[in-house]
């Protein structure tokens, strides 16, 4: 797509008039207006050239299509993520401002919360998904990854999205949650809905919400204590009611957070990693010669593809971002994917390099809201890439990769591949 | 600027200068010290910035908080009495010369 850059001209309203309350200050930087819709199909098809336009336009830009400010450079995205007092989450992390609009579902107690409320619920989920818990899960997750790759090697040719990127997390995560066997087919549609709902009121969001009733009913039921098997993440959350850390009303909503964000994200993360290793066989060869790179190869895929592309924050006061004034109560869109390929931060950002020092990428966010399930995601990614590297000699793409469109998530609908056994 | 010496598992020593107020983990990442992973970027979530504090410095780096204590249960290498997460060690002038030993692995 061609992005039209509309610099401040006599025809455009003064930039600082948006939101009101911001004093006209000659010392602040003008904010470039862009005619970019980052929630449109043509944008999703290839976002990278537009990401570059967004980064180049300035530290802060204004998107007229949805009346939001946006940041696409690494430094500003990182700064916004790490100043939750100024850039809050409790007014929603999608376009919808909860101060003006009723949320489409009861507000999340963790994602859509600010300190001090967030601090308490986050501490509970941190403990449920702690490094010590991952140690206990590791062997089982690794065995399941090995079994999945063995099964796919029998078939040789298959769809790397449905049969691998979706099938593997579906074979471990719902059990780790302690979910009942019935109804699991609702999980991916529900997650797709949640991530579409962060976007603007476009067709994707409207369609998802219209079709959401059965998925919402399933998830609501699964969040109840009686429906969660002992020992799983869900039961561990409910056990925190007994210790007084959370109330009985809060527990189901925290379970819902893991059901919302625990599956589709890893599906797209693993899908991204397989797509990278298939496209860059030299990197797959490096991985095969050094299995200890598996975890970083996954991490680099999360940087490179950024399965979660964007999140919003809302300003709690008038603020200056790198000299650009933004008023109180404004939505600020953070382009995580653009930050993860910002040449100001990353050497050779367009290269998938499994030995890159990836620490600091914002694919999982940053700061107090950084993905609470990041350790589960890395565990799944690492053991799957390790299994692939040990058992598979080459991954050949045998047909067109088809993209799946979502307002927030980036990933594929299908990727036909053929495995050659090692 | 305070200096910190990281001693790798293979006994190789690396001395770097730190900014007052930065964490030991951040300092390591800034200087590209291998052996500190810091997957969560300092959020006290991942336990991949594990260090063993040299005995001479143990009394000066502060105490282990409750959350850190729980995270240390999940470190990949053995937890020892002098185990700390380097994201929780804030560098000050008083820590000039700090010696931190790196574990065999972080994940």
Automatic annotation (TrEMBL), chain A:
UniProt-annotated stretches for the region Disordered: 1-20
Keyword Aminoacyl-tRNA synthetase (UniProt): no
Single GO MF descriptor: iron ion binding
Composition bias, Polar residues: 1-10
Cofactor: heme
Highest taxon listed in the record's lineage: Bacteria
SUPFAM superfamilies: Cytochrome P450 (SSF48264)
Keywords from the named record: Heme, Iron, Metal-binding, Monooxygenase, Oxidoreductase
A Pfam cross-reference name: p450
PANTHER family for the chain: CYTOCHROME P450 YJIB-RELATED, P450, PUTATIVE (EUROFUNG)-RELATED
Record-stated family: Belongs to the cytochrome P450 family.
Protein name per UniProt: Cytochrome
From TrEMBL, chain B:
Single GO term (MF): electron transfer activity
Record's keyword annotation contains Cell division: no
Single GO biological process annotation from the record: P450-containing electron transport chain
Residue stretches making up the 2Fe-2S ferredoxin-type domain: 2-106
GO cellular component: cytosol
Cofactor(s) it depends on: [2Fe-2S] cluster
Pfam families named in the record: Fer2 (PF00111)
SUPFAM superfamilies in the cross-refs: 2Fe-2S ferredoxin-like
Recorded superkingdom: Bacteria
InterPro entries to which the protein is assigned, alphabetical: 2Fe-2S_ferredoxin-like_sf, 2Fe-2S_ferredoxin-type, Adrenodoxin-like, Beta-grasp_dom_sf
Transcription in keyword set: no
Keyword annotations of the record: 2Fe-2S, Iron, Iron-sulfur, Metal-binding
Family: Belongs to the adrenodoxin/putidaredoxin family.
Protein name: Ferredoxin
Taxonomic source organism: Tardiphaga robiniae
């Amino acid at each position: 797509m061609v992005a039209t850059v509309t610099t401040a001209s006599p025809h455009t309203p003064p930039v600082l008039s948006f939101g009101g309350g911001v004093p006209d200050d000659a010392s602040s930087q003008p904010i470039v207006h862009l005619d970019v819709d980052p929630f449109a199909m043509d944008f999703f098809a290839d976002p990278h050239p537009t990401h570059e336009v967004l980064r180049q336009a300035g530290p802060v830009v204004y998107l007229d299509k949805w009346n939001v400010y946006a940041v696409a450079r690494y430094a500003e995205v990182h700064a916004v993520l790490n100043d939750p007092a100024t850039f809050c989450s409790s007014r929603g992390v999608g376009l919808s401002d909860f101060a003006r609009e009723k949320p489409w579902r009861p507000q999340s107690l963790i994602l859509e919360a600010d300190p001090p409320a967030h601090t308490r619920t986050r501490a509970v989920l941190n403990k449920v998904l702690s490094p010590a818990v991952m140690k206990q899960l590791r062997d089982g997750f690794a065995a399941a990854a090995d079994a999945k790759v063995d099964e796919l090697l029998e078939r040789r040719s298959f769809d790397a999205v449905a049969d691998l990127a979706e099938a593997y997390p579906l074979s471990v995560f719902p059990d780790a949650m302690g979910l009942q066997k019935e109804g699991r087919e609702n999980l991916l549609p529900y997650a797709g809905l949640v991530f579409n709902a962060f976007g603007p009121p476009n067709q994707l969001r409207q369609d998802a919400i219209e079709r959401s009733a059965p998925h919402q009913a399933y998830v609501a039921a699964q969040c109840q204590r009686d429906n969660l098997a002992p020992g799983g993440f869900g039961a561990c959350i409910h056990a925190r009611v007994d210790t007084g850390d959370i109330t009985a009303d809060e527990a189901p909503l925290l379970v819902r957070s893991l059901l919302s964000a625990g599956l589709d994200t890893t599906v797209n993360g693993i899908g991204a990693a397989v797509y990278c290793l298939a496209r860059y066989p030299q990197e797959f060869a490096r991985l095969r010669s050094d299995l200890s790179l598996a975890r970083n190869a996954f991490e680099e895929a999360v940087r490179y593809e950024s399965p979660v592309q964007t999140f919003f924050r809302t300003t709690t006061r008038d603020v200056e971002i790198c000299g650009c004034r933004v008023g109180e109560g404004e939505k600020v869109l953070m382009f995580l994917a653009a930050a993860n390929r910002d040449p100001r931060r990353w050497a050779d950002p367009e290269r998938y390099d499994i030995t890159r020092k990836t620490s600091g990428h914002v694919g999982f966010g940053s700061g107090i809201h950084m993905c609470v399930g990041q350790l589960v995601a890395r565990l799944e990614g690492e053991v799957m890439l390790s299994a692939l590297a040990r058992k598979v000699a080459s991954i050949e793409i045998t047909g067109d990769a088809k993209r799946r469109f979502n307002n927030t998530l980036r990933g594929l609908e299908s990727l036909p591949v053929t495995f050659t056994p090692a | 600027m305070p200096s910190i010496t990281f001693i790798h598992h293979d006994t190789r020593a690396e001395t770097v200068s730190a900014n007052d107020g930065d964490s030991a983990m951040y300092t390591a990442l800034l200087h590209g010290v291998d052996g500190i992973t810091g997957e969560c970027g300092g959020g006290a979530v991942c336990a991949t910035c594990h260090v063993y504090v040299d005995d001479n410095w143990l009394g000066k780096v502060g105490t282990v908080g409750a959350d850190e204590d729980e995270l240390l249960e999940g470190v990949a290498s053995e937890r020892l009495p002098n185990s700390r997460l380097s994201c929780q060690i804030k560098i000050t002038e008083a820590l000039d010369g700090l010696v931190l030993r790196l574990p065999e692995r972080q994940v």
